[in-house]
Every structure is written in C-alpha cells, then in structure tokens.
Design brief:
The chain contains nine helices and four strands. The chain is of the alpha+beta class and 359 residues long. Helix 4 (76-97) runs antiparallel to helix 6 and helix 6 (157-223) packs antiparallel against helix 9 (299-320).
C-alpha cells in the first residue's frame, strides 16, 4: 500500500512537471493599435525628403567639410560609441556560441596510498592474491579525456537572447548615427556662427574707423570754437561703446573656435574659414516630407525601438528560465594506473553519455 502511494505521488509529480513544461512562453507585450492618421500634413502631400541626402552633398564649403571629416575621426565621444558597438557585436558572437556544445579537455594525474589498518587496506592485506597480480601500492592514476555538454533550446531561450543582443547591437549603431548627426549639425552651426561673427567684426571695425574720423573732426571744430567739449565727449563715448562691441565679438569668436576644436578633437588653434560672401550665402532648400518620414529619419527613435524589442526578448528569455532545461552531456577518454596501459583500447577507454532534465 505504501509503495502504491509513493508511486502515485511520483507519477503525479512527473505529470505536473511535464504539464508545466508543455506551456510555451506567451508574449509579454502587446503592440498598441495605431491611431487614425490625417490624410495630409499642413495641406501638403510632398514626399520629397532631405533626410536622405549625404552631408557631403549638402555642404559645399571645403573648410567645413574638412572640419567634419576631422571630427568623425577624432571626436572622443564618437570613438567611445564605436567601442560600445564593438562590445555589442562581441555579445552577439557570445550568444551564438551558446547554441554550440561546450567542449573541454580534462587531464590529471594522482597517487594514492591506502593505510593498512583501514577498511580497504585490511581487505587487500587479508585477501589471498597471487604474486604479481596485487594492486600497486601506492596506486597511481593517469587520466585524459574530452567532455561536452549541449543545451537544447526547447523554449527559444537562447534564440531570444541572441535576438536581444542583435537588437542591442542595431540600437548602438542607431545611437552612433544619432551622435554623428548631432556632431555634424553642431560643427556646421558653430562654423556658420563663426562666419557671421567675422562679418560682424568687420562691420564694427568700419564703424570704429568712421567714428574715429568723426571724433577727429569734432576736435578740430572745438579748436576752432565751433563746438563745445560736450560734443567731443559724446563722440568719444560712441567710439568707446563700439570698441566694447568689438571686444565682445572677438571673445565670441574665440569661444566658437574653441567649441569647434573640441568637437574635432584637436588642440586650440585658429579655424580655417572664408568669411567673404557670407551675405550672399544661400543654403539648399530643406524638404521635411511627411510626418512618417520625419520619424523614420530620426536615429534616436529607431534606437529606442530597437531597445524596446531587445527588452521584450530579454523578458521572454528570462521567463523561459523557469521552464525545465534539457541538456545532453558526453565524455570520452583514457584512464589507467600505469602509463604502459594508458592507450590500450578498449581496456583503458572510458566514455559516458547522459541526458539531463533540470527544472
């Protein structure tokens, strides 16, 4: 009766384990339904998109192009991002390797001396053993073998982990694209600001020259008693005020140059530029396209999308860890107490094969 109860309990437990194992991991997140989209965007259906244009085709100033090229090679933050991409790529390789069997080589040598007044020593001492057939004392042992283990991806745990790593890798690439876009825009903005400051400085210098000439004329008029000292002081104040504007613009020029040098990863130095014809500089027309294209062209949104997919797959892979794991282990090698018998087949050969169900 007791045996029947034990067998029934064991059978019920095995049935529950199999029943639990047969459940497949369900989807963790549900994709939200899309809202109704308008037929037109600001009464425009123009699908022309400037986001597909390469930056070298958009900027035509050779000095600006040289600065951007230098930034893409030397910018520290960009180089850090490239190393993070390499780390994500190596994670994909590691996840792929989990599909393959893990193989290891194990070798060893040991010696054992059994005491005479122990359980094993007493048996050897009291047993009638023919001369030449006794167990060597001390007993040596040599072993060399290969062992392999392989986990069957029944619940797609390894598959989801690999896909999550791949999506994180793609997200890191989109993050790099977002950084490159911001880097190019910041350099271009600072470069055009530098051209604007150069032209402002040129205008201020011309105004200073004109005001200085006017001040000299007023001083001559004062010597001829045509005006008073008040007029002279007024023109001197105008000259000093304009010179203060000049110093402020020169300070902004240094700041803009330092910002460009920092973005391009080089020491502080003058930025090569051509400020002539800035007032006739007409940028290429920019076409935004439709809202869906605006979203598609944003690397940060694509990065967030990839990270969300990776997070979903991580949850599924973690949930699959609650289900039983199926592993196959095998081993083969040689073991003998005498090196002369080590490679003797099949007497010294050892092998094993097992299947494990781990819950």
């Amino acid at each position: 009766m007791l045996k029947k109860i034990i067998y029934s309990s064991a059978g019920l437990t095995l049935f529950l384990v199999v029943l639990t194992a047969c459940k497949t991991p369900s989807s963790v997140f549900e994709k939200p339904a899309l809202k109704s989209m308008p037929a037109a965007y600001h009464s425009s259906k123009d699908t022309s998109d400037s986001g597909k244009i390469k930056w070298k085709d958009f900027f035509h100033d050779p000095n600006l192009v040289a600065l951007i090229d230098s930034a893409l090679k030397r910018n520290q933050e960009l180089n850090i991002t490239l190393q993070e991409i390499e780390i994500a790529r190596n994670e994909i390789r590691a996840r792929k390797g989990e599909y393959l069997p893990f193989v290891r080589i194990n070798g060893g040598a040991d010696v054992e001396k059994t005491g005479l007044y122990t359980r094993y020593g007493a048996n050897d001492a009291t047993t009638d053993i023919k001369p030449g057939t006794a167990t060597p004392d001390p007993l040596q042992n040599y072993m060399l073998g290969a062992y392999a283990s392989w986990e069957l991806d029944v619940w797609n745990k390894l598959h989801n982990a690999k896909n999550a790593a791949a999506n994180r890798y793609l997200a890191s690439i989109e993050g790099k694209n977002f950084l490159v876009t911001n880097l190019i825009s910041e350099i271009a903005e600072s470069y055009y600001e530098l051209l604007m400051l150069d032209n402002q400085l040129e205008i201020v210098k011309k105004n200073i020259a004109i005001q200085s000439n006017a001040l000299e004329m007023v001083r001559l008029q004062k010597q001829a008693a045509r005006v008073t000292e008040l007029a002279v002081k007024k023109f001197e104040a105008e000259v000093f005020n304009t010179r203060s504007l000049q110093f402020g613009i020169q300070q902004k020029i240094i700041e803009a140059e330092n910002r460009i040098n920092f973005l391009t990863g080089r020491y502080p130095q003058p930025v090569a530029r051509n400020s002539q014809g800035f007032d006739q500089l007409i940028p290429d027309s920019v076409r935004a396209g439709i809202p869906s294209q605006l979203l598609e062209n944003r690397p940060d949104i694509r990065q967030a999308e990839r990270q969300l997919i990776a997070a979903r797959l991580d949850v599924r892979s973690a949930k699959a860890n609650f289900y039983p794991a199926f592993r196959i282990t095998a081993g083969m090698g040689y073991e003998a107490f005498n090196p002369a018998f080590f490679l003797k087949t099949p007497e010294s050969m050892l092998y094993s094969l097992a299947g494990d169900l781990v819950s």
